[in-house]
Amino acid sequence: MHIAVFDDNIADRKQMERLLGRQSDRYQKMGKEHFYIDSYGNMEALMRFPQMYDIIFIDMAEPESEDSRFRNGIDVAKLLFEVGGIKNIVMCSSKHDYEELAKENGIYDKMLYLKKAIRVKDLEDVIEECERRIGNPVPRLEIRGETETIYAEENYIIYAKTEGMYKVRIYLTEGRSISMISDIYNLYEQCTIFPSMCPVSQNAMINVRHVVKEKFGSVIMDSGDKVTVAFSYRGNIKEIRRRLALLEQG
Asked: 0.85 exceeded by the pTM?
């Protein structure tokens, strides 16, 4: 789940990041999708591509802009609705009563609301409601390379392997690849949202849906690439296929 925090108070912004980070850890332990959190202190940065976020938390108590159109967070929310494609907006009331302001502006039912200081239970309830409104979105992995960021669905990833110290290259469909600063273990942890991903050595992992041929000590992917399979990892592919078959059976 991709979440944006827009707050012109840096202390409140950091506190929300901490609360969301803890909630993300709880979700991962439950087998749910990890939270990808970006925070913003100015509107221009937020507006670059707000549609990518599943939830946007907003508070603007002391706007720096002298533009009279942006007096508080409601004005930011209205602009986001004008842009379109926004999934969930959560207004976080501190200086301003956003519930009352939303009613005055005729957009009360379009948003959810929290009061600061934010309680953990209230935050959990809001996130659960956002999930209900979203439904069951296709999980995507955020892959941040040196010059680009890709949001990859499960079938988009063919395999990944270590590329030097603290670097992993991920091979994608359509002949693409991207290098990211990480190690194969950390990447595999992030890929637990994808049931077809399978570790095949201390240096590589594959998407078993892209395997076209298995050999002794290696597999051939549908990209034509050969990936080494360590002896102690050979049973992993069979186990992942068994799990996928159970998922497909319902």
From this structure: no
